[in-house]
Every structure is written in C-alpha cells, then in structure tokens.
Amino acid sequence: MDRRKFIKITGITLAGVTLGMGDSLFGKVYASPQNVKRWAMVIDIGVCLKNPECRDCVDACVLTHNIPDFNNRKDEVKWIWKARYGDVFHDSALELTKERLPSIPIPVLCNHCENPPCVKVCPTKATWKREDGIVMMDYHRCIGCRYCMAACPYGARSFNWREPRPYIKKINPDYPTRTKGVVEKCSLCEERIALNKLPACVEACKHKGMALVDTSAGRLDSYPSIKDRHIIARKTHLGTKPRVYYVL
Amino acid sequence: MVYDKGKVITGLVVFLIILLSPLWYNALSGKVEPSLKLSMPKEEKSCIEERMFMRSNHMDLLIKWRDDAVRKGIRTYKGLDGKVYRISLTGTCLSCHIDKAGFCDRCHGYSGVKTPKCWDCHNIPKEEGSKV
C-alpha cells in the first residue's frame, strides 16, 4: 500500500467511525475529522417528557463549574437550568402542542448563537465567538458592565451580585470560581472539550437525552436518531441563529 | 534672626542620630537585610523553566498561560527540556509549590508586591478552612 492510499483509507475509516457510530446520537460527541469544528448542542425533549424530575444535567454543571447557590431568585447564577417548555417556547403554537408538554421542564442554556448580540455590545472583548462556534467568556477582562445581559434575548447570562465563594457547596479545585462583579454563563465546557471530554451535562444525562454535535460534519437530520423528527430552536425570528437544538 | 543657636544645632544633631540609628544598628549588629527563606518543593528538582527565568518572568509567563488557555484554546505548555505541562495555575504551579503561603506570598510580601488578585477566583488546594 502506498502512502496516498494509506492516508485515504485512514481518512475514510475515521470519518466512518465518527459519523456512523451505532444509531444513537445522544450521549456522545460527534466530530468531523476536519480541524475546524462547529459545535452545537442537541436536546431530546422526548427524554425530558418521560423524566420531568431529572436534574442530572443541571447538577453536573453546578459541581463542575463551582456555581453558587444563594437560595434566592434575585441573585441566582445559572449556566444550564430547567424551565417549562411552555415558557421556553412561548412563541410557538402552544395551544396545538401535546397537552402535557407545555408544563414539562426542559434544559436551557446559552445558545452559542451564530450571531451573538452579547458579543456585539461587549466593550472589552471579554466575550467573543470562537471559530468553532463557542461563545466564550474571558473573566479576566469582564468589567461587569452587564451590556451583554441586556443584549441576550435568552436570559442566559448571570451577574455576580454577591461574593460567590461562601455559597459554593463543594469547590471543584480544577475550575476557578468567579468574583462579585463579573458576568458568567455556559461555556459549552470548552475546557473539557479541549481535553477530549464531553460537556459535563451531556456526560451526566443518564437517559442519554443530550449530544454535542459538530455541524461541520453535515446536516443535523443526517443523524439516524434525528432523521424524520422535528427540530426546533428558541426565538429563531430574532436572527441570532441559536445553536442549541431541541428535538421533538 | 535666630535665637538659641546652640539649642537648634543640638536638636539637629539629635535628630540626625535618631534618623541614622537603624543603619548603625544594622552595621554594628551584622544584620544586613532580612533573609528570605522560601518553602521550596521537596520532590521536584526543577521548575518549568530555569530558576532565574522564573524568578524574574513568572508573571509574564502566567499572563501568557492565561491568554493561551482562555483566548486561544491552547491548554498545554512546553517547558524546560521539552517537558509538556497542562496549563493550570492551581493544577500545575501549585501542585509543586504546594505551600503557596510560604512560597508565592512570602516572596511577594518580602518584595512589597501586592498579593495578586488571582486567588479571588483561582483555587488554593488544601488551604486551611477551604472546602477544596
């Protein structure tokens, strides 16, 4: 076998391994063999409908990122949280959806928008969009002006009104805390992706209802477990192009 | 017009003696400067770069680490002899320099550097009273 042939076959095998693994998309990373990835999150609402009490994704995120619990809504800091489907998709035809669905809690998080309005308004470039689509935060640059919070139509950003450390139940030494006066949000676990790990929420979901998907590898509906299902996203009419997809 | 010239001069002399006394005290008692005893790692023989380089450049290196990790997504650093380290203030620097107070803080105190604000967010392992 010559060199070219070897590279070709290896390439095809790798592509096959990453794209065609089993028939379930969920609970895994689907990455294209290319270098530049375009990350997106896929959430199977069918799974949440069956397990309305489950909070695995939220609990895992809280532990991983040292998110404080002030036990009061006003000061709340959240990266991923659960909200009723009816509130999350209040702009969809709720009167026509399955009777039980609107009251079911589903996970919500930063949408890592293609056109992130938060990035446009940040005066210090403390938040910006990476090539792989992740909307990052640099806590070292955040001056706490909160323009990004005003710009985000999804309420995905939280301000630290109080010193968070005393309100963190158990500190994960591997991830820094934040301080009073900075804004924070979901980072799609870029620090875990960098180490070839799944986002904490995806890994924690015991019902396999979440997936991290590389959309540079092809259309979402080319995945067997999504094919023929309905894919929705939040407030698409705003033009932010959210990249957290919900499958019905 | 100066009255009591004698008293003024005597006062000046006393003032100078008091002003300079610490110098004389140090010179006569042999204490030249306070000594700096840093709590060094026991197992490891070398830092990620040469000791003298670290002494004068660790702040710039940490800023490079910060920008590499957060802004460029680079999570490893190649140090002395090509050894590769994970970029982490807590997980790497403090895994060797476990006694942060006796190392980082002691030298900063000695040099009159304000304790860097990093620790408001970055965790200090095994610190007394910490939840880590």
Textual characterization of the structure:
The complex is a heterodimer of chains A (248) and B (132). Chain A is an alpha+beta fold and 248 residues long. Chain A has 8 helices and 11 strands. Chain A has a 5-stranded mixed sheet with strand order 1-9-2-11-10. In chain A, strand 5 and strand 6 form a beta hairpin. The N and C termini of chain A lie far apart (47 Å). Chain B has a domain of 71 residues. A two-stranded antiparallel ribbon of chain B has the order 1-2. The C terminus of chain B is likely disordered. At the A-B interface, loops of A face helix 2 and helix 3 of B.
Defining key terms:
heterodimer, A: 248 residues, alpha+beta, Alpha-Beta Plaits, five-stranded mixed β-sheet, two-stranded antiparallel sheet, 11 strands, 23% helix, 16% strand, globular, B: 132 residues, mainly alpha, 2 strands
Q: What separation lies between the terminal Cα atoms of chain B?
A: 72 Å
Strand order of the largest sheet of chain A: 1-9-2-11-10
What's the CATH architecture of the domain at 3-114 and 188-247 in chain A? 2-Layer Sandwich
Give the total of beta strands of chain A.
11
How many strands appear in the DSSP assignment of chain B? 2
Q: Give the distance, in angstroms, between the N- and C-terminal Cα atoms of chain A.
A: 47 Å
What CATH calls the topology of the domain at 3-114 and 188-247 in chain A is Alpha-Beta Plaits
- The radius of gyration of chain B is 24 Å
User: Main sheet of chain A?
Assistant: 5 strands, mixed
Summarize the structure.
The complex is a heterodimer of chains A (248) and B (132). By secondary structure, chain A is an alpha+beta fold.
